[in-house]
Write a structure and sequence with these properties.
The chain starts with 8 loop residues before the first strand and ends in a 9-residue tail after the last helix. A four-stranded antiparallel beta sheet has the order 1-2-3-4. It has a two-stranded antiparallel ribbon with strand order 5-6. It has one domain. The model has no long low-confidence stretch (mean pLDDT 88). The longest helix has 18 residues. By secondary structure, it is α+β, with helices and mostly antiparallel strands. It has two helices and six strands.
Length: 154
Amino acid sequence: MAHRWPTLKMRVYRPMMSGAAPSIQWIGPIRGFQREYRILAHWSWLEAVAVPYVFLLDPTLKPRDGEDYIDIPHLILDGETPENSALCLFDPDEGQWDNTMWISDTIIPWASEWLHHYEFWHVDGVWRGANAPGPINIREMRRLAEGGQDVPRS
């Protein structure tokens, strides 16, 4: 990681809770399209399903004007503190990432690409990134669960 992303600083996080797994975290800036973002990449490698998560620290996530966090595409929503939600960077059911892959070669570049799409989405509401099958955001998931129709995407 240090060779490919020298601005990301690593730390080992050891939770104080009994039985909680330690994690590796990388904190620092990466670029979106027009600006830099401070991120936290978090990987609890000892957990049974150990997948890395990326969070925006500065600036924090925000929905488009007049919308809500459930409208942000490709987000692993934290319902209690939505501004602390993780970026959805891959489909774990499709085997797009596993723990034999370097986070520096996959997760961090995918986060940068996600930020590109996020910036454009803020301009016109269109998500230009690749999509996993199914709904693009939480609002769409809820609508489909209530019997609504899937909406074609651009």
